Automatic annotation (TrEMBL):
<dbReference type="InterPro" id="IPR036250">
    <property type="entry name" value="AcylCo_DH-like_C"/>
</dbReference>
<dbReference type="InterPro" id="IPR009100">
    <property type="entry name" value="AcylCoA_DH/oxidase_NM_dom_sf"/>
</dbReference>
<dbReference type="Pfam" id="PF02771">
    <property type="entry name" value="Acyl-CoA_dh_N"/>
</dbReference>
<protein>
    <submittedName>
        <fullName>Acyl-CoA dehydrogenase family protein</fullName>
    </submittedName>
</protein>
<feature type="domain" description="Acyl-CoA dehydrogenase/oxidase N-terminal">
    <location>
        <begin position="16"/>
        <end position="117"/>
    </location>
</feature>
<dbReference type="InterPro" id="IPR013107">
    <property type="entry name" value="Acyl-CoA_DH_C"/>
</dbReference>
<dbReference type="GO" id="GO:0003995">
    <property type="term" value="F:acyl-CoA dehydrogenase activity"/>
</dbReference>
<dbReference type="InterPro" id="IPR046373">
    <property type="entry name" value="Acyl-CoA_Oxase/DH_mid-dom_sf"/>
</dbReference>
<dbReference type="InterPro" id="IPR037069">
    <property type="entry name" value="AcylCoA_DH/ox_N_sf"/>
</dbReference>
<feature type="domain" description="Acyl-CoA dehydrogenase C-terminal">
    <location>
        <begin position="240"/>
        <end position="354"/>
    </location>
</feature>
<dbReference type="Pfam" id="PF08028">
    <property type="entry name" value="Acyl-CoA_dh_2"/>
</dbReference>
<dbReference type="GO" id="GO:0050660">
    <property type="term" value="F:flavin adenine dinucleotide binding"/>
</dbReference>
<dbReference type="InterPro" id="IPR013786">
    <property type="entry name" value="AcylCoA_DH/ox_N"/>
</dbReference>
<keyword id="KW-0560">Oxidoreductase</keyword>
Length: 382
């Protein structure tokens, strides 16, 4: 296949590259959709299109999607990738998230070092979910290094992500520390049997045991507990919601194609359902625009603005979840049992989107919105 291999140096160019690539990602999705699989070709295409470095500033060879003013093209880039393949979108969102966190929290030398790794084709990710019973711990060694103990679950891209950004507990209750694991040198032990999911098979979200691996002090990113600082921690939900909306858009497009192929476009009930789906999709696009505007507003990242930023992100992710669930319900009625048989893509799209919508603490996110408005606060007060 042919992809755009010219450098992308602006946020708009990154968005256009993702839009161009989405149909190719969609065509490749079924082949990678196996337990333990990984969309290797799709990530090679993302790299060739310049999208693995898009979150870097132009000075480091990126497209500048890291800038607050680029929030809308960032979200639209993620939406296009999700439209192509939700599994790719999930891992790509983690890649961008890790690079953004390193730029926000790392030292100047670390930012330069990991930017060079991204340009060299290394895939980043964020592994945060603790494996019971105790999760990951860092043990200080006399030589200034750290030895790791414990494991993470839902380690998306495990075995392929070579620069996972991971949280671990420091000794003596000092807090949670972010660190980058050079996984091609310090390779975790992977339990592939953990990942037997309903959907998102191709994300390779295995259990990763880090016990016995060692870090240099320069592998630590930021001060303790920096990962959980607001608004970046909860406010980042707008990114995965944008990927989810891309999946809903794929459901809409394939439903329309299916009905056209059957010659069912004159059925008034099918037209009614497609009309409802079109309204939902446009509503989702407006939520993406609103979330981008909110994230880019002056003061969004200040202590005063953090609460409003988080509340708006929680509102947006809740709305996108409802849109996606309704889109799946209407698509089922449109295509019937016949449309849910392979090789039609609905079975995979339904599994992947249903699984990906199960993000942490949905009830808490909605309750936070209610608390915020009950206190008489405004999303646009800054």
């Amino acid at each position: 296949m042919s992809v755009n291999t010219s450098p992308i140096a602006t946020p708009a160019a990154a968005e256009a590259a993702a839009a161009q690539l989405a149909p190719h990602l969609f065509a490749q999705a079924a082949e990678a959709d196996v337990e333990g699989g990984f969309p290797t070709q799709s990530f090679a295409d993302l790299a060739a299109a310049g999208l693995l470095t898009a979150a870097l500033p132009a000075a480091f060879g990126g497209a500048g999607l890291d800038a607050p003013a680029a929030a809308l093209p960032l979200l639209r880039t993620l939406q296009h990738v999700g439209r192509g393949n939700l599994a790719v979108g999930r891992i790509y969102e983690g890649h961008l998230n890790a690079l953004l966190l390193i730029q926000q929290l790392g030292s100047a030398s670390q930012v330069a070092r990991y930017a060079a790794d991204a340009r060299a084709g290394h895939l980043f990710g964020v592994w945060n979910t603790e494996a019971p019973p105790e999760g990951v711990h860092l043990e200080a060694l006399p030589n200034g290094r750290y030895r790791l103990r414990g494991a993470k679950t839902f380690a998306s891209g495990a075995g392929h992500v070579s620069r996972p950004l991971i949280t671990g507990a420091l000794p003596n209750g000092q807090g949670w520390q972010l660190f980058v694991l050079p996984a091609e040198v310090q390779a975790p032990t992977l339990d592939r049997s953990f990942w037997q999911p309903l959907g998102m098979r191709a994300t390779a979200s295995f259990r990763a045991d880090l016990t016995g691996l060692e870090l240099e002090a320069d592998d630590l990113i930021g001060p303790p507990n920096a990962y959980y600082q607001q608004p970046a921690f909860s406010g980042g939900a707008i990114r995965f919601a944008a990927v989810q909306l891309g999946g809903a858009e794929a459901v809409f497009e394939e439903t329309r194609n299916f009905l056209r192929g059957l010659g069912r476009t004159d059925d008034p009930y099918q037209r009614q359902r497609l009309g409802e789906m079109a309204i939902m999709l446009e509503s989702g696009r407006q939520w993406v625009r609103g979330a981008a505007e909110n994230a880019a507003r002056p003061g969004a990242a200040t202590p005063e603005g953090a609460e409003a930023t988080v509340a708006y992100a929680n509102m947006m992710r809740t709305a996108i979840e409802a849109i996606c669930l309704d889109m799946l319900r209407l698509a089922e009625r449109c295509v019937g049992a016949r449309g849910l048989l392979r090789p039609e893509p609905f079975e995979r799209l339904h599994r992947d989107l249903t699984h990906y919508l199960r993000q942490p603490a949905p009830d808490g996110a909605l309750a936070d919105v209610g608390r915020f408005v009950l206190e008489g606060k405004s999303f646009h007060q800054l």
